[in-house]
Amino acid sequence: VDPEKALKNTMSWGTLGTVRPFSNFWADRDAAEIQSALERKDAVNLVRVLTNRSNAQRQLIADAFREMAQKDLEAGVKKAVSGELASLLLELLMPPLEYEARRLQQAMVGLGTDEETLMEILSTRSGQQLQDISAAYKFTYKKDLEKELKAETSGDFAKLVVALLNKQSVAGSVQTDTESLAASVNGKKAEAGPWIAVLTSRDQDHLKRVLMGLEVQCGQKVDQVLEKNFSGDIRLGLKILAQCSRNPYVYLAKRLTSTKASIVHGVMVSHCEEDLLCIRAAYLKLTGTSLYTALQKQYKGEHLQALLAVCRSED
């Protein structure tokens, strides 16, 4: 599947996701089935039901389960299964905005900040989605996301993440933007300001043209320009943002080559109802292996079965 072709031929269910609503859906029936699976610690049926329903349907199942069993489904899952499988199923049970808010919170909690996860979410979500995620963050953690980001980051990187959180598309001139970026790396010390201003406020088509123009002007790939002129967090942040401005699916496919289950879960759960088909196509092009096959080399047991169900099929 070519991601661009896939976008044009939107699937018949109207999404480029791999997980779609289950057609013959009855929340009460699913809740009863899950209740008996939890009692028997039957992970196979638990995985089958939860990975074959959309998130909206899972929320209805959780409500029906609460009424039927007089306890939360999350508590039942934690008791019946453990490890990576439990993590994945609990993530699938979270409403999408709450899940993204939790990923941001987890990236900032404890020692050290996971800058790459912050950048992944902030770079691949629209301004409106980020406003909704901010509201979910405030509701869940009783804290302001922008203030938290400022407290957990510093310098130019802090400016970058805050600009991304508040991004709005503003029209600009391709030539002016290209010259501004080229000038920012021509002095004694490279300036991040123009990069932050341009990369967080223009639409994708505009940025593709700016970055192509910059490569012609500098005689180097954008990655090389950033590598040579910046260091630390801001270099990482600008490289991710430049990559996502060109093709977010390639960047997300690279994320899926990680050996960390938490990163793989993050991308797959976040994108399974939106555009995982495009990410799968980019993964195949990038690695020469389908995501479906790659998962089988890395994971096993019911955890693998759940990941394969979310991935959905071989490319």
From TrEMBL:
Keyword Transcription regulation: no
GO CC term (a single one): plasma membrane
Keyword Protease: no
Xref: Gene3D superfamilies: Annexin
A Gene Ontology molecular function term of the record: calcium ion binding
Family matches, as InterPro entries: Annexin (IPR001464), Annexin_repeat (IPR018502), Annexin_repeat_CS (IPR018252), Annexin_sf (IPR037104)
Signal peptide: none
PANTHER family xrefs: ANNEXIN (PTHR10502:SF8)
Stated family: Belongs to the annexin family.
Domain description: A pair of annexin repeats may form one binding site for calcium and phospholipid.
UniProt name for this protein: Annexin
Organism: Mola mola (Ocean sunfish)
